[in-house]
Amino acid sequence: MFLSRHLVRELSRHSATPIPALRPLSTVSSLLNSRHKSPSLGDITPESVSSYKANLAAYRQKLKAASAAAAAEAAQAASAAGTVKSLLYGSPAAQKEEIEMEQSYGKVLARGKYVHEIVLHKVKPERVAEYVEMIGEEYPKIAEDKDNNVHLVGSWKVEIGEADTFVHIWEYNGYAGYHQTLNRLSTQKSYQKYATTLPNLITSRTHDLMQEFSFWPTSPPRSLGGIFELRTYTLHPGNLLEWEQHWRRGLEARKNVMEGVGAWFTQVGSLNTVHHLWQFGDLRERQLAREASWSKKGWSETVHKTVPLIGKMQSRILVPLPWSPVR
Questions:
Q1: Where does the UniProt annotation place the signal sequence (predicted)?
Q2: 265 has which bridge partners?
Q3: Do the beta carbons of residue 206 and residue 108 sit within 8 Å?
Q4: Which among 33, 76, 80, 200 would be 20 to 30 A from 50, CA to CA?
């Protein structure tokens, strides 16, 4: 299920647990006692899978209600505006071109509004506990500081893939927000301590700046449980637009059997790279969901058309850290 930014506000109105329009780290205070624990696949139990399914069903029901409310509100507004607009701007035929132009510009603006950063830390095995404790202290501070122009999408530990690797995804309010946040953090003593300590705990790190696909907005904070899969595709240069067109259609086949978190393409760093993040109850649920996708109309065609565009692909199974807003 893919959540539009407009529906985040509607979900807050229809949910007992409001979902903020932006992504402040609103759940940190309740997790202070557990945020230093390094999670693992061993934490996933049959009971937690059942809980994930119940949480997902409730989340989708809220989304459905919010979508209906938003549609009704939009229809009412359009009806009221239509009478005035017909008087001011002429016939519906004359308005069509203007509407199409507004939609085109809207898509362009939506793409440029947010900049996402994906950070990968390869941690020394003997320093994992120290690393988790350190970022468990620092990352919540960064995310909760309203003067920073950034929100934490989530933090995860790789369980299948590169061992002792941690993945963090941040959302900035454009490149201006990215620069403003880094400049502000560089003057803070706690961040300076973090920046000088981190190199002693890791063997490598990468930072890529990404843009989310316009048809797949990044999820707001939610707590469904389960595991995550980060799929990374390195495309042959020049194929991103074609990839996007095929994937836009292919996701229609998957949206009811798999729960998406976000999809991004790299703009600075490892170019021609696409990341997709999914959420499942456990590995068995992942298997069943992926198998079910093949029975959906359009999915096999999507795979057939996108595989030739790929130079390399990678799958990582992740578990969320306790303070992760998406978990």
A1: none
A2: 211, 274
A3: no
A4: 33
CA separation for the pair 143, 24 (Å, rounded): 6
**CATH number among 3.30.70.100, 3.40.50.2300, 3.40.630.30, 3.40.640.10, domain 1-111+210-327:** 3.30.70.100
Amino acid at 98: E
Residue 91: phi and psi, rounded to 5, are -70, 165
Beta strand 259-268 pairing with 273-280:
antiparallel
What digits encode the pLDDT tens for the residues 55-85?
777 776 776 776 677 666 666 655 555 544 4
| Side-chain half-sphere exposure of 95, counting CA atoms within 13 A | 12
Residue 174 near residue 115 (C-beta atoms within 8 A): yes
Report the alpha-carbon distance of residue 228 to residue 238 in Å, rounded: 29
What is the rounded average pLDDT for all residues in the chain?
80
Over the stretch 212-237, which tens digit does the pLDDT of each residue have? 998 888 989 998 889 999 999 999 99
pTM of the model: 0.74
CB 170 within 8 A of CB 93: no
H-helix or E-strand containing 10?
helix 5-14
For 43-104, what is the HEC assignment? HCCHHHHHHHHHHHHHHHHHHHHHHHHHHHHHHHHHHHHHHHHHHHHCCHHHHHHHHHHHHH
Domain ranges for the chain: 1-111+210-327
Write the pLDDT tens digit of every residue in 178-187: 999 999 999 9
200 touches 257 (CB < 8 A): no
